[in-house]
């Protein structure tokens, strides 16, 4: 029945559907300009009477990754569209209290008229600005104020689309209320904007609404079934069914074309949500996904190929001098060193100058995030380091929030005794300095036993004896609830990575997010990433992958896979990703055992690099930040909006494109090999010779000059 309801859309949209290969060509060839070419604070959009609304459940409401997408994109969006842009979502008081500055729209603005008309119907609508870079306009809807019409909204959804929703599914019911409130607002705004345009001799308004994910997709379904003349774009960041299937340990990518999607959604009791997502996908004028791999997934699970791929970016802030981010790395690493001294007290038999910090972080999805193969690869790396580089130590951090009882007492005690030793040494140091100064002032050079008194020796010995411990350093910083069934701890036990004296790989499982108020680390997540040497994210299911992207922007090399959107994007745009500090593990075309061995080899290759080689690799990695900047990637979102507008308003011509320089999307060639653009593939020199101590063998003279090395 659901397919019958969508049949008209499938026929209408055939000419809009491109294959995955076409998407790749489209995103590469037609993105001939940078989004900076359109930064006019909405001047041209205002002259065209063009309005853009972006709708998501996570607007000013921090829940997951989409919040990061919307928030980080806010600056370039407002630079492009100014006051012609408005973000919409649910009003969540606990978030809005700190994220939103409430204010009314100016008088005479059709936005104000539409908001007031909605308020007159009994809805609570909050307006203002988001307190992030760009300060975009916000309209947030109080879902509770529309709950009295829930039965009416559900009835309309059933009558128009034959999608029934269980009464007890609160999340879906909230999405329905929000969707229909937004649809009513947009319908009202279009009427107000038309009246305003006629009264002021302006051309008819052109409106585009961009919806993110299935929770916001209800609004798109309502607009299209009510035949409101508004251009619509729907973006899926990860398909709903895809997440559930991957969580069930299925061979997902090799069976994508074999899944009975209706049956699988029904088994997992998400059929109504799946229907909403699929309806929004087919009813949208333009359908986009965040990566090629998600587009392939959507083609089989949602039965529509994406029209455009819209990769996720970051709001990159470049440093004026190349050495600045290297200095930040050194300062952050010293803070991690402090944690390591406390956690491994009594067993500090390794040199921190020869210690590397690897980490994995994200939602606690043991298989999807690749924690399983990460731990297995670390066991093999441990064996290789024992044999080949016994003086090198790797500390592997696993940051996965899960339920805990409290901090591990042994971890807290370690930091306390190390602090006591530091305070004692500082006191002794001051005493020695004062005695040395007084003695030299009198013309005498003191004997060593005159500088270090017996009392000082006693204090130091007491602190040193306090550092002794019989047990091994713990593998976790907290007492985890039901630790015997915890998948990370179970894998650590199986691989016998117990932080013994002989282990060259040390494990630290930190089961909560990092904040600057954390009593163990005392640093936030961004600073922690800067202090590490390598981020390892061997995900099996990762539609985009913000964690490796954040590493890249901060100049930290990372490991990703060809099943993540980020990995596919980098593989496509860089001819030699490994030389740029992007290690891509093959989890699609080879077996699991081979993937584990490949990851272990990548980590071993990185461990062989000397300090200068790592510095140069970080410089190369940081240069890729331009590739991930919203100023570069935001152009795809613009193309999606233009395409949607042209499908609703055939006479629409993108006026701003007439003033564009139409320069090619090129990235500056690094001073050292290899060059960045894919077009330079044939001239890419050989990669660096890893393991060489001679700097000249790693890079050209220009690179060394840039690093300040003579």
UniProtKB/TrEMBL annotation:
Domain of life: Eukaryota
GO molecular function per UniProt: alpha-1,4-glucan glucosyltransferase (UDP-glucose donor) activity
Keyword Phosphoprotein: yes
InterPro entries referenced in this protein's UniProt entry, alphabetically: Glycogen_synth
Catalytic reaction annotation: [(1->4)-alpha-D-glucosyl](n) + UDP-alpha-D-glucose = [(1->4)-alpha-D-glucosyl](n+1) + UDP + H(+)
Pathway(s) served: Glycan biosynthesis; glycogen biosynthesis
UniProt biased composition (Acidic residues): 693-703
A single Gene Ontology CC term: cytoplasm
Pfam families membership: Glycogen_syn
UniProt-listed Enzyme Commission number(s): 2.4.1.11
Signal sequence interval, chain numbering: none
Main function: Transfers the glycosyl residue from UDP-Glc to the non-reducing end of alpha-1,4-glucan.
PANTHER family in the cross-refs: GLYCOGEN [STARCH] SYNTHASE, GLYCOGEN SYNTHASE
Record family assignment: Belongs to the glycosyltransferase 3 family.
Protein's recorded name: Glycogen [starch] synthase
């Amino acid at each position: 029945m659901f397919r019958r309801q969508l049949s008209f859309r499938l026929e209408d949209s055939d000419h809009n559907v491109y294959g995955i290969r076409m998407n790749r060509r489209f995103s590469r060839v037609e993105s001939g300009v940078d989004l900076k070419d359109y930064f006019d604070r909405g001047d041209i959009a205002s002259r065209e009477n063009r309005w853009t609304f972006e709708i998501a459940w996570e607007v000013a409401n921090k829940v997951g990754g989409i919040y990061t997408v919307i928030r980080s994109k806010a600056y370039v969006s407002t630079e492009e569209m100014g006051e012609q842009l408005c973000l919409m979502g649910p009003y969540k008081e606990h978030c809005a209290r700190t994220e939103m500055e409430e204010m009314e729209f100016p008088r005479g603005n059709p936005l104000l008229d539409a908001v007031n008309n909605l308020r007159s119907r009994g809805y609570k609508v909050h307006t203002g600005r988001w307190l992030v870079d760009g300060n975009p306009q916000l309209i947030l809807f109080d879902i509770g104020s529309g709950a009295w019409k829930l039965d009416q909204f559900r009835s309309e959804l059933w009558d128009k689309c034959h999608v029934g929703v269980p009464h007890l599914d609160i999340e879906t019911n909230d999405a329905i209320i929000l969707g229909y409130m937004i649809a009513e607002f947009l319908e009202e705004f279009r009427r107000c904007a038309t009246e305003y345009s006629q009264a002021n001799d302006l051309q008819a308004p052109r409106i585009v609404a961009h919806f993110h994910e299935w929770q916001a997709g209800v609004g798109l379904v309502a607009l299209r079934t009510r035949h409101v003349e508004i251009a619509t774009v729907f973006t899926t960041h990860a398909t709903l069914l895809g997440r559930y299937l991957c969580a069930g340990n299925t061979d997902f990518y090799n069976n994508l074309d074999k899944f009975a999607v209706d049956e699988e959604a029904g088994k997992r009791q998400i059929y109504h949500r799946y229907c909403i997502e699929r309806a929004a996908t087919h009813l949208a004028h333009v359908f986009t996904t965040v990566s090629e791999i998600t587009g392939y997934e959507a083609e089989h699970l949602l039965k529509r190929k994406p029209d455009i791929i819209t990769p996720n970016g970051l709001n990159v802030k470049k440093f004026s001098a190349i050495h600045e981010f290297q200095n930040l790395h050194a300062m952050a690493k010293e803070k991690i060193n402090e944690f390591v001294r406390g956690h491994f007290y009594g067993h500090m038999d390794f040199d921190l100058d020869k210690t590397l910090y690897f980490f994995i972080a994200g939602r606690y999805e043991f298989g999807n995030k690749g924690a399983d193969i990460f731990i297995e690869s670390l066991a093999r790396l441990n064996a290789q380091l024992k044999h080949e580089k016994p003086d090198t130590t790797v500390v592997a951090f696993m940051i996965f929030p899960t339920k805990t009882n409290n901090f591990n007492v042994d971890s807290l005690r370690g930091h306390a005794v190390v602090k006591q030793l530091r305070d004692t040494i500082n006191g002794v140091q001051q005493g020695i300095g004062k005695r040395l100064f007084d003695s030299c002032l009198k013309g005498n050079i003191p004997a060593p036993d005159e500088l270090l008194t017996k009392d000082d020796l006693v204090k130091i010995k007491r602190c040193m004896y306090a550092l002794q411990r019989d047990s091994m350093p713990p593998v976790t910083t907290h007492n985890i609830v039901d630790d015997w069934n915890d998948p990370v701890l179970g894998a650590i036990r199986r691989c016998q990575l117990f932080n013994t004296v002989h282990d060259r790989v040390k494990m630290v499982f930190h089961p909560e997010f990092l904040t600057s108020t954390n009593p163990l680390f005392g640093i936030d997540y961004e600073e922690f990433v800067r202090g590490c040497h390598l981020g390892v994210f061997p995900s099996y299911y990762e539609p985009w992958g913000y964690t490796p992207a954040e590493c890249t922007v901060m100049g930290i090399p990372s490991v990703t896979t060809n099943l993540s959107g980020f990995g596919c994007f980098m593989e496509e745009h860089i001819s030699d990703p490994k030389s740029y500090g992007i290690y891509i593990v093959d989890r699609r075309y080879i077996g699991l055992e081979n993937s584990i061995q490949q990851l272990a080899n990548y980590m071993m290759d990185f461990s062989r690099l000397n300090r200068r080689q790592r510095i140069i690799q970080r410089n190369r990695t940081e240069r890729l930040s331009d590739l991930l900047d919203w100023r570069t990637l935001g152009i795809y979102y613009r193309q999606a909006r233009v395409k949607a507008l042209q499908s609703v308003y055939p006479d629409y011509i993108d006026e701003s494109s007439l003033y564009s320089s139409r320069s090619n999307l090129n990235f500056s060639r690094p001073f050292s090999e290899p060059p960045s653009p894919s077009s330079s593939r044939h001239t890419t020199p050989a990669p660096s010779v890893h393991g060489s101590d001679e700097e000249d063998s790693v890079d050209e003279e220009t690179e060394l000059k840039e690093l300040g090395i003579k």
